[in-house]
Amino acid sequence: MSRLSAPHERPALLNALLGIALLLAAGLDILLLVQIGWAAWQRATLAERWQRTQPTSRQALAEAAVAVENAGAVLAALPTDDDVTAFIAALPACAHAQGVTLTELCAQPPDVAVLPERAFRVAAQGSESALPAFLVWLSEAAPEGSRCDSVTLDLAASPPNLELTLHMPIRPSGG
Question: Beta strand pairing status for 147-154 and 161-169?
Fold first, then answer.
């Protein structure tokens, strides 16, 4: 008898090849299903992360908008360069009215700062009561954002003297 016992039977090699092809097709189907499941899981994870971070992001954006508004208000409150010049020009007369004599009033290089500023070295002489009062007045009357550094008040000297550096931030040009 021949290897084929009946005309409708296939050879064993062809059956093996068909079996391997079916296994490969099933493997590819399983791989496709795994990838679809992985993509769905990633999408769900990203959606959950988005839902978690969206309120935080919105809150951060709102806080940033408020900070920008506040920064604009702070910058608008700062004196202009002309305001600082007028204050410095009037300072000797104001000091004299309080019984204090300015012995030095000169511009200093400003500190490195975020905002532009002008700095002045101030030296004054006066009575033991006039100098502290002048210092308090200066800290209150100086333009918005001003600060006094390197303050030295020597009431034991003859005559008593006061030395300080006055820093005054100015509104950035264009602001």
Answer: antiparallel
